[in-house]
């Protein structure tokens, strides 16, 4: 649909950027922090680990000043569970509380709204050793942790996100390290973990509403529209299958408090049905999020799977397995270009995704990740000419404005990432930030912060809150 007049970005739109604790903070074992599953298990050969990352733990004042210079209205970051409770539960670490108090106060001093993710992939290793999300005790540990966060930071944090990309942790569980790949049926275990995470999320939402009636809380999945490979009805059905399993399973539960029917029938067909205890569904039905945060990088296309085992394939740099026999199989979209890391670029798919989420749930929306990973080059005179990133973000923001004109209640945009950080799978070489951090994979150099070309572009954009100037 073409609009005669585009609606402007709303007043008080939350222009910002995102990061996560393990990817930016460093100081992985300082000031009482306990190890997380990332610290213990997450190793990708030939790339940086997360021990120092961007050393934000020691640079946070300088970093926040740079975000303020860009004009950020909001900053989305995550709290490392293991800084607050080194063992996941039990003894509180006062120095962890101090660090996030200082960070939040620093942001507020510049009138930057903190948007806080409670858990971004970094489950405490002490909990993992006791079964992690397979153990129902982790539900209680998360509720306890969430109540601690609300108690200590709830007076200043108005937006909470429960769990980052729960759907990616389940769909690619062995990559993040919360399930043993050698299990006989890891998928069944993952969907049991999923049920427990959904309960943990519901309990955190209820606790938030109980303790902080004026504060808002929502889920933060990765959502993207799924195209059928063709107009063949079987391909359309495959796209519907995959969308239900990948997207709506998670948001239907968060927003409606029930399992998506197609996803449930898929569990039954595959033998993945989780054990549900008495009272679980009441807890799930009672929790109502105030908004939906979501991450969007690319769309996907799928075709019918007729049951051939070769339908299970692999795409992109993350080596994500796509395709399930009898459900759907991956399909390369010939209409889209890819990033240098093989991720399809689809701004129009962003608009479609925004519309789809709005039509299903009718809740305010905020984008908490979107961005381009690239091998940036530091040129003479401390210049980083990341025009490709500006182009990617501009094209996606054009579609945001079109979605707003379509009636989507979008209240913020926090692309990935505010500052360079260590990519989940490809080290520091795959950069996303507006601010360059001067280090290499294994040479930490001087860690100095350098404004990229996109920094100045984004600053101007935020100032005018418009794409036209
Ligand atoms: C999302 C994660 C982020 C970040 C991003 C980019 O799935 O929430 O933590 O890593 O993807 O991915 P990558 O670092 O693999 O390029």
Key terms for this structure?
469 residues, TIM Barrel, eight-stranded parallel sheet, three-stranded mixed sheet, 15 strands, binds 6-O-phosphono-beta-D-galactopyranose
Structural notes for this entry:
It is a single chain. The protein has about 475 residues and is an alpha/beta fold. The chain has one domain: Alpha-Beta Barrel (TIM Barrel). About 40% of the residues lie in helices and about 15% in strands. The strands form four sheets. It has an eight-stranded parallel β-sheet with strand order 5-4-3-2-1-13-12-7. It has a three-stranded mixed β-sheet with strand order 6-8-11, with helices on one face. A hairpin with a 4-residue loop joins strand 9 and strand 10. The two termini are about 25 Å apart.
State the separation between the terminal residues, measured CA to CA.
24 Å
Shape: globular
Write down how many β-strands occur, each being a DSSP E stretch of 2 or more residues. 15
CATH architecture: Alpha-Beta Barrel
Helix coverage percent of residues? 40-55%
In the CATH scheme, the class would be: Alpha Beta
Low-confidence stretches: none
Strand order of the largest sheet: 5-4-3-2-1-13-12-7
The CATH homologous superfamily is called Glycosidases
Could you name the CATH topology?
Answer: TIM Barrel
| Major β-sheet annotation | 8 strands, parallel
Structural class label = alpha/beta
């Amino acid at each position: 649909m073409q609009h005669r007049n585009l609606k402007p970005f709303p007043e008080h739109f939350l222009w910002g950027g995102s990061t996560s604790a393990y990817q930016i903070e460093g100081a992985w074992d300082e000031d009482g922090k306990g190890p997380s599953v990332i610290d213990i298990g997450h190793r990708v050969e030939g790339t940086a680990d997360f021990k120092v990352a961007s050393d934000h733990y020691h640079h946070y004042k300088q970093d926040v000043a740079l975000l303020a210079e860009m004009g950020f209205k909001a900053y989305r970051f995550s709290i490392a569970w293991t800084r607050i409770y080194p063992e996941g539960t039990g003894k509180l670490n006062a120095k962890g509380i101090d660090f996030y108090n200082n960070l939040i106060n620093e942001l507020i001093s510049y009138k930057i709204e903190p948007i806080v993710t409670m858990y971004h992939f970094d489950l405490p290793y002490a909990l993992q050793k006791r079964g992690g999300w397979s153990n129902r005790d982790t539900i209680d540990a998360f509720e306890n942790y969430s109540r601690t966060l609300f108690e200590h930071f709830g007076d200043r944090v108005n937006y909470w996100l429960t769990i980052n990309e729960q759907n990616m942790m389940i769909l690619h569980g062995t990559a993040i390290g919360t399930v043993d790949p050698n299990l006989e049926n890891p998928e069944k275990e993952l969907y049991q973990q999923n049920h427990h995470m959904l309960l943990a999320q519901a309990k955190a939402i209820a606790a938030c509403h109980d303790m902080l009636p004026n504060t808002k809380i929502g889920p933060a999945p990765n959502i993207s529209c799924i195209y059928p490979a063709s107009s063949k009805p079987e391909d359309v059905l495959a796209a519907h299958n995959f969308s239900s399993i990948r997207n709506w399973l998670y948001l239907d539960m968060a927003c409606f408090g029930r399992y998506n029917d197609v996803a449930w029938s898929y569990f039954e067909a595959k033998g993945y049905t989780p054990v549900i205890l008495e009272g679980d569904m009441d807890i799930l039905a009672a929790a109502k999020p105030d908004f939906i945060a979501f991450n969007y990088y690319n769309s996907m296309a799928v075709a019918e799977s007729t049951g051939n085992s070769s339908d299970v394939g692999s795409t992109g740099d993350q080596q994500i397995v796509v395709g399930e026999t009898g459900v759907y199989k991956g399909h390369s979209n010939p209409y889209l270009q890819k990033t240098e890391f093989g991720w399809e670029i689809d701004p129009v798919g962003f608009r479609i995704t925004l519309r789809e989420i709005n039509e299903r749930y009718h809740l305010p929306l905020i984008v908490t990740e979107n961005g381009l990973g690239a091998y940036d080059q530091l040129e003479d005179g401390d210049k980083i000419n990341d025009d490709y990133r500006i182009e990617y973000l501009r094209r996606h923001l054009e579609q945001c404005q079109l979605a707003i004109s379509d009636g989507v209640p979008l209240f913020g945009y926090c692309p990935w990432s505010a500052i360079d950080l260590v990519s989940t799978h490809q080290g520091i070489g795959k950069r996303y930030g507006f601010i360059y951090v001067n280090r290499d994979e294994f040479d930490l150099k001087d860690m100095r912060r350098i404004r990229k070309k996109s920094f100045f572009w984004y600053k101007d954009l935020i100032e005018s809150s418009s794409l036209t100037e």
